[in-house]
Amino acid sequence: MEYTLNMVFLTSGGKKTTFSIADVKSSLTDAEVNTLMQAILTQNIFTTSSGDLISKASATIVAKTVTDVTMSYIIEFNE
Questions:
Q1: Phi, psi dihedrals of residue 31, rounded to the nearest 5°
Q2: What is the reported pTM?
Q3: Do the beta carbons of residue 20 and residue 6 sit within 8 Å?
């Protein structure tokens, strides 16, 4: 199973923006996510088209199951 962390921030322009991190560990805690989001805000290292990030809005961890499908090929010859 693959896990993706989606972090939603409010910007100084009054809009929401989402940052996603793929392949996070499944045991990621609320405290770790809050600490990461606060560090992003404190360091002010990102900006968006609607301004700087000013506060945390929400976060989700999405679990996705991926199943590979084996391809079979049929080759037709026209004479």
A1: -65, -40
A2: 0.81
A3: yes
